[in-house]
Specification:
alpha/beta, 27 strands, 9 helices, FAD/NAD(P)-binding domain
Length: 403
């Protein structure tokens, strides 16, 4: 069955997260009066995801406490949600989206806001019961009861989610082991001095962190009960969390014929190579003049601001999107706030004293400030965002299609 009501004007969004919510609000705020349909494979309205590994995991509030807006807000704005059903196929020539239940939804404008999923590791035993990920409300609903029954928790990955979950588990007095293949924690997101601070913080609170360790297999008789490491040792556990990073949900777009490279390639306002087809949020890879390459950002700021940029383009007033990214992580009493991208720096300087738990690190390239990590220094973070914007302005756009 094909739904054609006002299809000539319909905007269809695949994905019902932060980016989708912002797009719908920005379109309505900009005067768009046509139908808006949002397709989500979860049974929940758009919600905040950062608290999943922090407050939501620790305090167990109801799912609707995370909602960005209540149901009446959306109905008042005539935004239709098709929840609990996945999009299975996109026909760009026929301008339809086929859902898992067989329905076909016609569109004039299509927006991919499909986000990310936990990166799956090709390990024996990865599908055993007792293995968990933490990317959605449903993940927490499965994980939390297992944690309540567990004394020993093994976490595979020392990034944001792994360390935030470790902090929650230690606050509950559970034994926690973090296994990280790299030579330090937080390697993708911050430099050695900040990683060293959080490594020490977790160890002082009783977390067993094992660096440079490769996992060979997940062991267990009918249920995951240990990580078998490449050196022959084992980490026994009552529950195992896979927190080894995320990958873009771009399979649907790739199958439809869009150009994807760990993310759907777009221009600087969210447009793909197909007319009236956009991609926004964690699943989109866009060109940044500021950083001289394509970026795919996994953060709330990007989801919101890129959705605004795409909405403006849909409404006929495109403005180039080239942000100073910012991120945050809460671990114990420490808030890490990151502005900019540090990975191409050639100089770093620490401000303050890490021993006090209040300090920041500035990263520069060719003398220009490109990133700042601030630990319990909110003012330094806010100032950094403005300073980075000023010092990285310029026109260094990579060629279209550059990775």
């Amino acid at each position: 069955m094909t739904i054609n009501t006002a299809a000539g004007e319909r905007v269809v969004v695949i994905g019902a997260g932060q980016a989708a919510a912002q797009l719908a609000m920005s379109l309505r705020g900009g005067g768009f009066a046509g139908p808006i349909a949002v397709i989500g494979d979860e049974p929940f309205l758009p919600y905040q995801r950062p608290p999943l590994s922090k407050k939501f995991l620790a305090e167990r509030p109801p799912p609707d406490s995370l909602y960005l807006r209540p149901a009446p807000f959306w109905s008042e704005r005539n935004v239709e949600f098709m929840l609990g059903v996945a999009a299975r196929k996109v026909d760009l020539r026929g301008r339809t989206v086929t859902l898992a239940d067989g329905r076909e939804i016609a569109f004039r404008i299509l927006v991919f806001a499909t986000g990310t999923c936990a990166r799956r590791l090709p390990l024996p035993g990865i599908d055993l019961p007792g293995m968990f990920s933490l990317r959605a409300i449903g993940d927490v609903q499965r994980l939390r009861p297992a944690l309540d029954e567990a004394r020993r928790i093994a976490i595979l990955g020392g990034g944001y989610i792994g360390l935030e979950t470790a902090a929650v588990m230690r606050s509950e007095k559970r034994d926690v082991t973090v296994v990280e293949a790299e030579d330090r924690v937080l390697k993708r997101v911050t430099a050695p001095s900040v990683a060293k601070f959080f490594d020490r913080t977790h160890r002082e609170r009783g977390v067993d962190i094992r660096l440079g360790m490769r996992v060979a297999a997940i062991a267990g008789e009918g249920r995951a009960s240990a990580l078998r490491l490449a050196d022959g040792t084992a980490v026994e556990a009552d529950a195992i969390l896979l927190a080894a990073g995320a990958k873009a949900n771009d399979e649907l777009a790739l199958a439809a014929g869009l150009d994807c490279r760990d993310g759907i390639l777009t221009d600087d306002v969210g447009r793909t190579g197909i007319e009236n087809v956009y991609a926004i949020g964690d699943c989109a890879r866009f060109p940044s003049r500021r950083y001289g390459r394509r970026l795919r950002l996994e953060c709330v700021q990007n989801a919101i601001d890129q959705a605004k940029a795409a909405a403006a383009a849909i409404l006929g007033s495109p403005e180039r999107y080239d942000p100073v990214p910012w991120f945050w992580s809460d671990q114990y009493e420490f808030k890490l706030q990151i502005a900019g991208l540090f990975d191409d720096h050639d100089a770093a300087a620490e401000m303050g004293d890490a021993a006090t738990g209040h300090f920041s690190v500035e990263y520069r390239r060719d003398g220009r400030l490109i990133a700042v990590d601030a630990i319990n220094e909110p003012r330094a973070h806010m100032l950094a965002r403005r300073r980075i914007a000023e010092e990285t302005s310029g026109d260094r756009l990579p060629r279209q299609g550059a990775a």
